[in-house]
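#struct-pred
JK: can someone run the complex with aspartyl-adenosine-5'-monophosphate? inputs below
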Amino acid sequence: MRVLAKAIAQICRERPGEPCEVLGWVHRIRKLGGITFIILRDRSGILQLLLSETREVDISNLTLESAVQVVGVPAWNEKAPGGVELQVHTLACIARAASDLPYQVNAEPGKIGLEAILDHRALSLRNPKIQAIFKVQSTIIEAFAQYLRGQDFTEIKTSKLVSGGTEGGAELFEVEYFDKKVYLAQSPQIYKQLMVASGLERVFEVAPAYRAEKHDTPRHLNEYVSLDVEMAFIASEQDLIDLEKGILSHIFTEVARKNAGDLALWNAQVPDAQGVSQAPIIPYEEALKIANAESASGNQKPSARIFDINPEVERLLCNWALREKGTDLVFVNEFPRRYRPFYTYPSDTTRTMSFDALFRGLEITTGGRRQHDYKALLEVLPKFGLKEEDIAGYRVFQYGCPPHGGFALGCERLTQKILGLGNVKEASLFPRDRKRIKP
Ligand code: AMO
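RT: done, C-alpha cells with the ligand placed:
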C-alpha cells in the first residue's frame, strides 16, 4: 500500500505488520555501526527509515536529496521523529541527486542567508520549514476566497496592463505595448470599483500588483499578491472593518486547523477570534498621540515628535494594543485627506472614511469608502494633479453608482506576520526586488 510519511504511525497502530510503500527524498543519512538511518521526506513530513545489515539494501551510491521508493514495515521507536520508523525491506533510487548539491537542504533556514535561500529557491523549498511558509500562504488564499464566497462575493480577474496609476506617486513599471507605453497595475482599484458599478455589488480578486518602489526594505516587494475586496451599499469604513475582521478570523481559524504542524515549525501562533474582535479602531489623530506617548515612555531614547504613521509608529501602536487591549491587530481610521488617493470619500473637510489595519507591527491593509459621485470626484482632481481624462474610466459613475468601498490585504505581509518572518521576501515564492529578477 502506498502511503505518505505522516500515515505510518496510524498504520503501525491500526494494521501492525502491514508492509507500506513510501515515496520521497533522502533528507539525511546517518550510519551507526551496522545500521543506517535515513530520514525520508515527502510533502507530508519526515519519516525515519531503518536499514539493518541483515537486509541486502545497497545504499553505497545513495546521495542526499535523491528521490527514492521504499517498502518496509512500520515499527514503534521512541527515538525516531514522531516515535515511529519504517523497517526497510527494499529501497530503489528513482532519481539520483548529483553529489555536488549547491544548497544544504537539511540545514536550519536561519543559518542560511536569505540571498542563498532565494538563489536556490526550488532546492530551498525542499526544507520542511521553508515549505511550511507556502502551505500557510495557500490556506490564507483559500480561506480568504472561501469566506467571501460565503458572503455572496464574486471572484474577478482583471487586467494587469493599464494605461495609468491609481495610487498616486510615480511607482509604475512601464511596458511596451505595441506602439504604446502602458503600465503594470499597482492595484485593481479602478476595476474593482467598476465591478461594483456594474451591478455585481460584491467582488474580490487575488492577483499580483506591481510597485516600482526603489527602496529595499524588509516590508516591500516590487511584485506582491494583493487580496482585494470591494462592496456596494456601505455607509462608512466601519462596514469594511467588520468585513475584514470576519475574513481575518476565518483565515486564522483555518490556518490553526490545517497548518498546525507548519506553525509549530516556526514556533508561531495565530490570534483567536476574540483577539480579532477586540481589535481597537483608533482615529488617526488619536493614534499619533498614542504613538508619541509610547515613544516618550519607551526604554530607548524617545525619537523626535511623530507627525505621521510610519513603520516605527506601526510598531509602537501594535505594542500598545497588545499591552492595553490584548490584541495583535489595530485599525486606524479617519486618515487626513492629504494622505489618501483621489478616490477616497471625505467625512469632512480634513478627514476621510478610510483605514489601515496593522498586525504585529506592520500595515497589512489599506481601505476605505470611495467617492461614488462623479461630479465630486472631478472637483478634487486638481488637488491631486489629475485631469478628467486621467480618470475617464470612472465616467460610468454618472449612471447610478451606489456608495461603496473596499480594501486590499497584502498576502505576503500577512504570511510574514503570521509566521514571524524577518523579511517579506521570505513569504514570496519568487520575489522581485531591484536586483532580483531570477529565478
Ligand atoms: P496600498 O497601496 O496601501 O492600498 O496597498 C494595500 C496593501 O498591499 C500591501 N502592499 C505591499 N506588500 C508588499 N510590498 C509592497 N510594495 C506593497 N505595497 C502594498 C500592504 C498594503 O497594506 N488600492 C488600495 C487598497 C484599497 O483601498 O482598496 C491599495 O493598493 O499589505
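RT: quick notes.
Residues 167, 187, 189, 211, 213, 220-221, 224, 226, 363-368, 406-408, 410, 412-413, 424 surround aspartyl-adenosine-5'-monophosphate (CB under 6 Å).
The CA atoms of residues 1 and 20 lie 5 Å apart.
JK: thanks, will look after standup
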